[in-house]
Amino acid sequence: MRKALISVMAACCVAACAESSLPEQQAASPPASAGPPPEVAPPPAQRVTSEAQIAPGRWDVVRVLCSDLLGASDDDRAAAVMFYYGYLAAKAGIRVIDVSQIDGNVRKVVDRCGAAPSITVPQAFRQALGRS
């Protein structure tokens, strides 16, 4: 279940960060002639088993690294982000969540994870959102 949560959380981050500007860029740019092919992003790094996974399907939520979150499938990442959003809000005693702020906050967390993949997801949330 934690893996699914991590995956969903990660997917939310990716979905929140995704821009739909690619079609606009393609429409605005002239058709490419015999020039070099467009650059392609390198394939994602091979994912290793996380130390946070204590058994199949069981995760220690305080030990999940940003690299685990970023390496999860889109669905698993989205579930995990939303799990952590609620889990950490409850842990901090936050009882009211402004849903209009979720996308921006998730984007900040994903950016923080991208900048520091070796920190834990709870640390990324605290650092990105200014919570102690």
List key phrases describing it.
132 residues, mainly alpha, two-stranded antiparallel sheet, 6 helices, 4% strand, globular
Short synopsis of the structure:
The chain is mostly helical and 132 residues long. It contains 6 helices and 2 strands. Strand 1 and strand 2 form a beta hairpin.
Protein model, in words:
- This protein is mainly alpha-helical.
- It has one domain.
- The protein is 54% helix and 4% strand.
- It contains six helices and two strands.
- The protein has helices at residues 2-17, 21-28, 66-71, 74-91, 102-115, 121-129, and strands at 53-55, 58-59.
- The chain has a two-stranded antiparallel sheet.
- A hairpin with a 2-residue loop joins strand 1 and strand 2 (58-59).
- The longest helix is centred in the middle third of the chain and has 18 residues, at 74-91.
- It starts with a helix and ends with a helix.
- Residues 1-31 have low confidence and may be disordered.
Helix content range of the residues, please?
40-55%
Largest pleated sheet: 2 strands, antiparallel
The tally of structural domains comes to 1
Global Rg: 17 Å
Distance from first to last alpha carbon: 27 Å
Outline: globular
Q: In terms of per-residue confidence, which ranges show pLDDT below 50 for 5 or more consecutive residues?
A: 1-31
> What is the succession of H and E elements?
HHEEHHHH
| Average predicted confidence as pLDDT | 75
Strand content: under 5%
Strand arrangement, major sheet: 1-2
Put simply, the count of helices is 6
The beta-strand count equals 2
What structural category characterises the helix and strand content?
mainly alpha
